[in-house]
Amino acid sequence: MQLRNTTSRYGWVSITLHWGVALVVFGLFALGLWMVGLDYYSTWRKDAPDLHKSIGLTLFAFMLLRLLWRFISPPPPSPSNHGPLTRLGARLGHGLLYVGLFALMISGYLISTSDGVGIPVFGMLEVPALISGLPDQADVAGVVHLYLAWALVIFAGVHALAALKHHFIDRDATLTRMLGRKA
User: Fold this and answer.
1) Mean per-residue pLDDT for 84-96?
2) Of all helices (H) and strands (E), which one includes residue 126?
3) Dihedral angle sign, alpha carbons of residues 15, 54, 104, 116
4) How far is CA 183 from CA 15, 91, 137, in A?
5) What is this structure's pTM?
6) At a CB cut-off of 8 Å and minimum separation 6, what does 98 contact?
7) Confidence (pLDDT) at 5
8) Residue 32 · residue 52 · CB < 8 Å
9) Which band of pLDDT confidence, cut at 50, 70 and 90, is reported for residue 182?
10) pLDDT score, position 183
11) Is residue 158 classed exposed, middle or buried when 0-12, 13-18 and 19+ CB atoms within 10 A define those classes?
């Protein structure tokens, strides 16, 4: 399989970033749901949020790389059987996924830095608190983070269902291209 995208399929960099981000997003969602239920005496009470933050900041770096890669190696055009509304829906849907992911990660950053302390990433480096002290910063960012996380996971599910619809009902190459196969 080729490194870069072609006019008929995605390259291995795009495929790896796509499926890797999807796996990490759903993993972070599950970790977030689990960790908010931890009680004061749980041994994971501090470690789970630290892990969640470290993975989230790493995901942010990979999303920046993914965005850069879209400019370096543009995705293949939509299959020829897609009408104008389908093409518009795909562009808007992908745009919402990108914007939603970045907004989710920024809200997580704002929660974590509300007290003016940076965020350690796997104990190797610290991301500084550039924005802190806003009124009710942690509470507002927490509500935004919660609702965005649910919205993003639901929308990613709709995205997956749309890909399955294209594969099984429309019988086009939408899904197979993201699996590395030629259209």
Assistant:
1) 96
2) strand 125-127
3) negative
4) 15, 19, 47
5) 0.94
6) 63, 67
7) 95
8) yes
9) confident
10) 62
11) exposed
Residue 82's identity, in one-letter code, is H
Please name which of 156, 177, 179, 175 lies closest in space to residue 166, comparing C-alpha atoms: 175
| Contact present, 148 and 104 (Cβ < 8 Å) | yes
Q: What angle do CA 70, 20, 83 make, to 5 degrees?
A: 50
Are 167 and 177 spatial neighbours (Cβ–Cβ below 8 Å)? no
Both structure tokens of 52: 């969640």
pLDDT at residue 58 tops 90: yes
Mean pLDDT of the region 30-42 = 96
For residue 30, what are its two tokens?
Answer: 């599950």
User: How far, CA to CA in Å, does 164 sit from each of 136, 169, 171?
Assistant: 42, 8, 9
CA distances from 141 to 114, 115, 117, 130 (A): 9, 13, 16, 15
Buried b (16+ CB within 10 A) or exposed e, 75-98: bbebbeebeeebeeebeeeeeebe
Alpha-carbon torsion, ordered 121, 125, 130, 131, to 10 deg? 20
DSSP E strands, 61-152: 119-121, 125-127
Q: Which class would CATH give 12-178?
A: mainly alpha
Give residue for tokens 């965020």: 119
Q: Please choose, from the candidates 82, 28, 96, the residue with its C-alpha nearest in 3D space to the C-alpha of residue 60.
A: 28
